[in-house]
Amino acid sequence: METKGSPRSYSPHKNGCLMDRNSEQTESFLPVKVEPGLDSLNKNPEDFTCMPEEDNTPPDRFRLVFFIMVIHGVGILMPWNMLINAKTYFEEYKLGKNETEVVELKGKFMFYLGIFSQVPNFVMSGINTFCQCGGQASPRRIIISISVMICVFIATVVLAMVDSSDWSVEFFWITMMTAVILNMATGVYQNSTFGLAAILPMKYTNAIVLGTNLSGVFIAVVNIISIISAPDPRTQAIYYFVSAIAVLLIAFDAYFLLPLTKFYQHFRAAIRRQQNTSGPSRTFSETCSLFGQVLKKIWVQALCVWFVFFVTLTIFPGIWSNVSKKDFPIEDKYWVAVFCFLSFNVFAFLGNIVSEWVKVPGPRFIWIPVLLRGLLIPFFLFCRFEVENKERTFPILIDNDYIYIVGGIVLAFTSGYYSSLTMMYGPKLVEPEVAGIAGMIMAFCLVMGITTGVNFSLAVASMATK
């Protein structure tokens, strides 16, 4: 059988898909390229062919691909978790001078950090989703992103060793600029990785989400160990940043391991077989039409993942980390470390794990509990939320430490659980060949939720204090 514009012969595959025998034989001897970008999914939705039968799928031996995705999840949120867990280092050590301008910056450090981190993340995630630069650029995105993150963390370690007491304001803005660079790289890394996982079964998307919360648990534990063992905040911070470099180096190596696994090769080859039967490249208008068709099918899940992270980041870490204890039997220096950062990350991680076995509600009704989570915002504002050198404008209605702790557990667990469900549901509501597009759109909405959440957090804090 001869196709137009090609001298090669094709024969029907047993599952009904057309495959190029010559190219398949050749491909088996070539290295596998990792292409998480949208340019690797160049096909109209109405032209879909069937995917290979599930019976032919090789096993994920030792769950290696699953753990690679977990490692990438850890690496994705490593910069954010490192910066927010170093709260004491930044606020008490580097910004400890009793000067009016420094005190003002210190009081809003976490809010500024959120904005300078997540807005660049959002912008780069959008660019990576909607602006593609050719198929050969795709394999380099994750590698370049991780490399940039490692270099910035090395610079951050150097800054920790330098005495900046005479230029605290300048140090503040240098820190904000490093946050911008780190999170620009994170935006590309995160978005590309979700696109990479979307062609696999949905639990591999959840593996990334699980890894992001495991990252938080890891850093929160390092934080507590540092408080106990390190003599000063500077040494604690150096421990954080060196740990981040080590984790990112592991993620760097894991990237090259993925295309060597037969499990990943199987799903990558299925997409390539469908590409062999596709027509010419889409025009810009056709690409926009494809995005519209995908979004039409997943818009509920996209809105849900946005709202999950909007609520979570409105509260955590800006508001949550500024809730003081009343009479809970724990030293002040451990209060935020244990009942903010560790508590959030542990229970969000547990929420991710539970979603592996329990998937309630389904895609149709998940918006109901997601919307109800919005009630957690006023809950935390009515706790003992305080900003240094500011007075509350809201009354304290929840003055019990135990009720506050339970509320924090609910916020964290539902954040992990519903973020996992929505991120898994989205790509599986579309045809397999555009699952990568759906995954990247979902990741874009995730980052948009984080960005709008941290900005709204500053607005809420301003309303609650004067």
TrEMBL record:
Record-given protein name: Equilibrative nucleoside transporter 3
Membrane topology of the entry: Multi-pass membrane protein
Main location, first listed in the record: membrane
GO cellular component: plasma membrane
Positions of transmembrane segments: 64-84, 109-130, 142-161, 167-186, 207-231, 237-258, 298-319, 334-353, 365-382, 402-425, 437-461
Subcellular location: Membrane
InterPro entries, A to Z: Eqnu_transpt (IPR002259), MFS_trans_sf (IPR036259)
Keywords: Membrane, Transmembrane, Transmembrane helix, Transport
Annotated SUPFAM superfamilies: MFS general substrate transporter
